[in-house]
Amino acid sequence: MNPIRRRHLALTLAAATLAACGLPAHAADWPADKPISYVVPFTVGGSTDVVGRLLAQKLGERLKQNVIVENKPGAAGAIGATYVAKAAPDGYTLFGGTISTHAINASLYKNLRYDPVKDFEPVSLVATLPNVLLVDPNLGVNSVAELIEVLKRDPAKRTFASSGPGTSTHLAGELFADKIDIPLTHIPYKGTPPAMVDVSSGAVTFMFDQMTAALPLLQSGKLKLLAVTTPERIALAPDTPTMEESGVKDFKMASWQAVYAPKGTPKAIVDRLSQEIAAVLQEPDVQEKLGKTMGMQLVGSSPEALRDLMATEIPRWAEVVEKSGASVD
What we know:
Layout: H1 3-20, H2 25-28, E1 36-40, H3 47-63, E2 67-71, H4 78-85, E3 93-98, H5 99-108, E4 120-135, H6 144-153, E5 159-162, H7 168-180, E6 185-188, H8 192-200, E7 206-210, H9 211-219, E8 224-228, E9 254-262, H10 267-280, H11 284-293, E10 297-298, H12 303-324
Parallel strand pairs: 1-2, 1-3, 5-6, 5-7
Antiparallel strand pairs: 3-9, 4-7, 4-8, 4-9, 4-10
Helix pairs in contact: 3-10, 5-12, 7-12
């Protein structure tokens, strides 16, 4: 048998063996000598970026391949999500998804250019993040009940800020308006910092945002913390009541961070990534940075568990969007 025919036969047998094992040939040697792109759909420095860069570093070490973060911000993560939805499903493009990109955007954008369910393979729920209710200390309120009284009494105070249309901070405000049955005006900003500055100055009455983002202004006394949106109190603010404890019934919200791959990415690769992410989240330095310092509740779920979460979250936020009339198209 000549060398060319022998090599062809060897490749054919290898492919047949892989097929018999249910493993696509191009997944067998993944990751090969090619860097993996991890797309973050928000700006540098935010929670999704911090999670993405830490995961990229740790996954690179475990997979023995470079994992490079690419920031593609805009439209509450829709720009980055659309880019990844069209990427090759070969395991070399990953996406840092959130409650915005894979739950809220599905109903908030009437002409969304990607489908969070049909265009992606869920890989792992990385973490949940508590949001908190923040006001200017000079507003003179010390509880959620007192804030509600101000909103009832003074229509000029019925404003809330967010880090942008379609973000969890936006929809938290819309959910609050629905629960207390008071019409509120949404004031969107290009990111968290300018929104918090205007709340701390009294230009806007209140906002919801992640605890870690608010810590510097809370510590300096420029913002006041009234409540947390999670079902239980959080370790970073154990004396702060939940929204439910504060009298706002059925107000439960936690932002979340997750990892996705383009639809059609081989199951063997998705499962490998899910397992590696779970292992990364158990590393002490990761738990210290994301858990203790940033207040995230680390998860590291199976792909199926993330899919189940989306099946609950998408209709839940669709109801909030419909009631509020919120839209960014």
